[in-house]
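Re: export button greyed out
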Amino acid sequence: MITPFAALLLGAATAAAQDSWVQTEGTGCSQNATPIAGTTGFANARSALRTNAQTYAATSWAERALLPGAAKKGGGFAMEAFTMLGAAEVASVETGAGTDENCPADHRVAVRPVDLQAVALGVVGRAGDWSFFYAGSTAFGNPAFPNPYARGMLIASNLVYGSMGTMAAPLAPNGFSTQQGASAFAIDWVAGASLQKKAGGVRVGYAGSRGLYAGLTESRLGLFGNALLGGADSQDALLGFAAAGVDRFDWSFLSKGIGLTTVQWRNLPFGGVAPVSSAEGGALLPDRGRLQTARVAHANIAGHVDLSATWATRPASALYEASVAVHSKGYVRRREATAGPKGGTGFFAQAGIVDLPGQAALGLEPKRRPAVRLEGTVSDFAEMEGAKVAFAVLYNDPEMLALYPTAVDALALRYSLQVQF
Amino acid sequence: MIRFVPLVLALAACDPIDPMPADLPCTEARAAIAARTLECTGDAALSDARAAAFDRGFACIPWSADDPALSDTSGPRPEDLFSCAFTIRNLPCETVAAHGDDLRAWLSEDPGCTWVAEPKSGGGGR
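Workaround output, generated via the alternate export path:
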């Protein structure tokens, strides 16, 4: 078994081995290269940084990951860590090129990947039909270290520091706290109350990135709708989303094995491509656009198969996704249950294709790429009923590419933990 | 810490940075025209059409570290080749409207554009 310590030793050894299969050309270049303003990579990186912050805005995350499965008992805790390797690529100037064996002169201008990360934490306490919740999130990104080992260690340490920032989110300035070149840091929180009745629920709260937040759910059909009500025009407001549809409508009243149907319309803030005059000056963040998707999915056919198709209607209308997935019995979430199987382990494996439209303004050519999504869960471990750990690997995942159109062939990793008490 | 094992292994297989592709300053100029068109007009089809017109009318001048013109200390450094894209990305919308489909006019906005693209024979660019 590979232990973390052994993996780190392996990394350290390979990092020290010049011209090895790990220490290739370019790994000797420094971290402090200067992104070139005016390039598509620079604009795309800044858009990806904003999108990451919006996706992991506390409201978005709480609605997606904390509230649906939490507080079945007296309360619950949830956390999620997200890493995307290579969300965009930025042409950058390395003035020290030519002075190191592994940083030759032709690397003076090199194309560098930008890595994104996010950490979110939340707690829910329940008293009768009422629940009270808090969620905090930290989202950040930066050009990757050229050295793979240093890159991995930076990512690992960022997750630790991100967790610390998330816990203290109400004490920190919210929105984009810093922004320099192709790097960014954003922090957000939301606190509120939820009233859940048999027929449905209502949620109200306040988001630190300026906004009253409200949500409605309907239990029988799975109708839902939610939105962040304030701060829409603020440059540093980390908007969540607006969504409506039918969530996992259960056909079992007709016959078992038909499955669950989801029809979802969603409108999200979407990082734009507006230029900035330089890395240091001018408008700090690109203007927002809107991403609008329509998704139809049918899950849990015969208990093991899911089908899904998604169309994006804005900003480009051509994004199309079709996929099929197989999973362990009981993996698919029902509205009245927490995700994953009750006890033991579960898996979900999805494969499909994505048709990506050419977008000249983003420097993207039309592509058809394979898409893979792998998930695994372990539930009720260590004699803790209601505890669940989940891990996901996403490669050209359609939902991910809809949010990060330049993240073609990027690898995303997501780790989450839920505990009920 | 166990969750970082796949991350470390994935990174070990990555090639973190690549030298600038030879035609990158040129393709950036093309993308800048498309981006500025989209931003000023909101017309994604027009944006893509102007990028296609660029491909038909202009040829990219590949950059090379061995190019004598670039090794001359009085010549441009590789990062200077991006001045064309930078200038185009910061053109006011009034200028974008005035230049319209005249890509030669777009590329005349920055002297550095002559380093990265040239009209194809037959007088392309419009």
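The CA atoms of residues 30 and 51 of chain B lie 6 Å apart. The button fix ships in the next patch.
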